[in-house]
Design a protein that fits this description.
Strand content: 15-25%
Order of helices and strands: HHEEEHEHEHEHHHEHEH
CATH superfamily: Alpha/Beta hydrolase fold, catalytic domain
Oligomer: single chain
Distance between the termini: 41 Å
CATH class: Alpha Beta
Shape: globular
CATH architecture: 3-Layer(aba) Sandwich
Structural class: alpha/beta
Helix content: 40-55%
Length: about 325
């Protein structure tokens, strides 16, 4: 068997050359990562490469829970039907990201899918370690109907869970928790998701240096997220139960992403369980390419188009 030659997208390669040189200088100067630097880094990256999203009706509210009242922003594109609503969990390694950072991405998802989108501002580590974010997503899934009705937004009580990176991990985790009870989650979209907290997949080493998201940074994220005696194997969605009650899935992977192989393995586990699943793979791409749209616009448009096809196919 002839192995395919790996070729990084030319614009990403050029940008990474400068980025990696800056990172090397910072490390040589004794740079210490902090939640502040992680949050500012993701915010600056997204602000620099993603233009503001389409105009549409937007409102904010709280979804009330037993542990925490979750702030959400609701996007409603013109002509959106009273059908399934997307609940979006942003990426950021459970430590960074916010509704504000992901505003242009959520607007694009709402516009391309023609569906209302609820973006949640879940609690972040290290201030709020595992499982705070998962609890917040569960709160929104269970309380989204009341929140939408409070704002006069029509819906049919069905939800499509979507998330990237750490938000993809939360999405998968909540789908696994809900599979053992009656629920109205009809689909899951996992975008280069983090699914194996043990860091055992081959792509962690293959792509763990030089491609924006690095192995040591992933480990640092996880050490801040898990602050108790949690079994990281048991917490990993990849190693959970897979029953016929899991919703259909679209899983996005990127060739130069260190999380690539866990996404591929997750697709296989869903297939083995008889769950309808599609793997949308992007050659030449790195982790978080949606946050770098001006460098790779065609790939981002391909994602939004396929996400729309998946969402509309669930009706």
């Amino acid at each position: 068997m002839v192995r395919k030659v790996r070729q990084l997208d030319a614009k990403l390669a050029e940008w990474l050359q400068g980025f990696n040189a800056q990172v090397a200088q910072l490390k040589a100067a004794g740079f210490e990562p902090t939640p502040i630097s992680a949050r500012e880094g993701l915010a600056n990256l997204t602000r620099g490469f993603v233009e503001p999203g389409p105009q549409m009706d937007v409102c904010e509210t709280l979804v009330y829970g037993s542990h925490y009242n979750v702030p959400v922003r609701i996007y409603r594109p013109e002509g959106a039907p009273a059908g399934p609503v997307i609940i979006y969990s942003h990426g950021g390694g459970h430590m960074a990201g916010s509704v504000t950072v992901y505003d242009p991405i959520c607007r694009r998802i709402a516009d391309s899918c023609g569906r209302a989108v609820i973006a949640l501002d879940y609690r972040l580590s290290p201030e709020n370690p595992y499982p705070a974010g998962i609890e917040d997503l569960l709160t929104v899934v269970r309380g989204a109907g009341a929140a939408l009705e409070k704002k006069g937004i029509d819906h049919d009580g069905r939800w499509i869970l979507m998330g990237d990176s750490g938000g993809g991990a939360m999405t998968a985790s909540v789908c696994h928790l809900l599979q053992h009870e009656r629920h109205n989650v009809i689909g899951q979209v996992l975008v280069y998701p983090s699914l194996d907290y043990t860091l055992q997949q081959a792509s962690i080493m293959e792509n763990g240096s030089g491609y924006l998201l690095e192995k040591e940074k992933i480990g640092w994220y996880f050490d801040n997220y898990f602050q108790g005696a949690e079994d990281r194997y048991q917490c990993s969605p990849l190693y959970g139960d897979f029953t016929a009650n899991l919703p259909p899935a679209l899983v996005v992977t990127a060739e130069f992403c260190p999380l690539r192989d866990e996404g591929v393995a997750y697709v296989q586990r869903l297939e083995d369980a008889g769950i309808a699943v599609e793997c949308l793979h992007f050659d030449g791409m790195i982790h978080a390419f949606l946050n770098m749209e001006s460098l790779v616009p065609e790939d981002c448009q391909r994602f939004y188009r396929h996400a729309a096809e998946f969402v509309q196919g669930l009706d």
